From TrEMBL:
<dbReference type="GO" id="GO:0005085">
    <property type="term" value="F:guanyl-nucleotide exchange factor activity"/>
</dbReference>
<feature type="domain" description="PH">
    <location>
        <begin position="212"/>
        <end position="309"/>
    </location>
</feature>
<dbReference type="InterPro" id="IPR000219">
    <property type="entry name" value="DH_dom"/>
</dbReference>
<dbReference type="GO" id="GO:0035556">
    <property type="term" value="P:intracellular signal transduction"/>
</dbReference>
<dbReference type="InterPro" id="IPR035899">
    <property type="entry name" value="DBL_dom_sf"/>
</dbReference>
<dbReference type="InterPro" id="IPR001331">
    <property type="entry name" value="GDS_CDC24_CS"/>
</dbReference>
<feature type="domain" description="DH">
    <location>
        <begin position="6"/>
        <end position="182"/>
    </location>
</feature>
<dbReference type="InterPro" id="IPR011993">
    <property type="entry name" value="PH-like_dom_sf"/>
</dbReference>
<dbReference type="InterPro" id="IPR051092">
    <property type="entry name" value="FYVE_RhoGEF_PH"/>
</dbReference>
<dbReference type="InterPro" id="IPR001849">
    <property type="entry name" value="PH_domain"/>
</dbReference>
<protein>
    <submittedName>
        <fullName>Putative rho/rac guanine nucleotide exchange factor/faciogenital dysplasia protein 3</fullName>
    </submittedName>
</protein>
<feature type="compositionally biased region" description="Low complexity">
    <location>
        <begin position="370"/>
        <end position="384"/>
    </location>
</feature>
<dbReference type="GO" id="GO:0005737">
    <property type="term" value="C:cytoplasm"/>
</dbReference>
<dbReference type="Pfam" id="PF00621">
    <property type="entry name" value="RhoGEF"/>
</dbReference>
<feature type="region of interest" description="Disordered">
    <location>
        <begin position="361"/>
        <end position="384"/>
    </location>
</feature>
Amino acid sequence: QKEAQLKAKAVEEIFTSEVSYLNQLEIAMKYFKDPLLKSNLKLPDALKVMLVNLESVYNVNGELLNELRRHGEDVASAFITVAPFFKLYSVYAYDYRHGIIALQDLSKTSSKLDAFIKKQETRPEVNSKLCALLIAPIQRIPRYRLLLKELLSHTPNSHPHHASIIEAIRKVEASTEHINSLVYEQENMQRIVELQKSLCGSKPVLVHPGRKLIKEGILQKVSKKSNKACPRYVVLLSDILMYCKMTGVPLGDQNSLRCSCVLPLRRCTVQQGNRIFSVTCQTLTIVLYSDQESCTTESWFEAINNAIMQDAQHRQTLNRRGSSRQVLKKKDLNFMSDALTPRKRKQLQEDADDVCAPFHSPWKRNKMTSSCASSTVSSSSSPS
């Protein structure tokens, strides 16, 4: 009898929380989205997109509430029907971070817009901060899993709804994973674009389909000549390892990094030493270590080693050549050009000797007779 009461309470919590959530969305749309979009006030693009996407989120959850009312105590069947549509939340989640940043910066960027929003927040019908209303969709899908888990804990194995609750949890988890993966990929690509902009001359070209950012940060590079360590900004991507000099411009700003060398992971090996590690690519070996507690030498070694293994597995699965077969030093980056089309690049790859094959970024070659000489690694010199 007690379990039955707890189960009924869990079902009621699902209903009441859904009604409350939809009420939050209605307030956000009625008192913020609609008047702001109709006004002459200029909205930041990220905030505008996020407000517009509220309607699609509201429609999905309106359908969920209808299904909950139709199925009654069998709430799991409602989730099984609607859960696949939760993936639409990824559209909202894409712009959430940038939208919230734009909202928080309104006091500096648009005093009129900021004053309007604050006035709306104090209305008795609202009585809530806009940022609190906008975060509700981000928190909602994980909340469903908790609510269904609570319901499952009070549902005996012999109950006819037990199997459907498990299925509902599985579908909600699948949608959550889908949303998280899409948001991660979008944020990961955005960070690669930001790194691209911070490189002097925007070279080398980092943005490429399928390429992912794995790790970045400042490491100490040990010089072979003086045995002294110099700070370098190291970027580990899914198929290359790049290290750069810092120009003195604040990190993240344009021209704050100058690429020194690009190492294709397919030609790299990594060895761990005493508080250091070395990366060898063909004839080039660099020795690195971290002096930061937040990002240890050990974590860098493991990240690079795992990236090398994953790159090998990925190429084997797809039967791809991957990135360049040779080290690309600073002098080689001057030959890169975005104007080279994939078709021309393919023709150059077919015509050029295999050792001169470029990595995923396009190349500009003045003469085919001099291209090999331009990209050949000099074993006698090491980039700084």
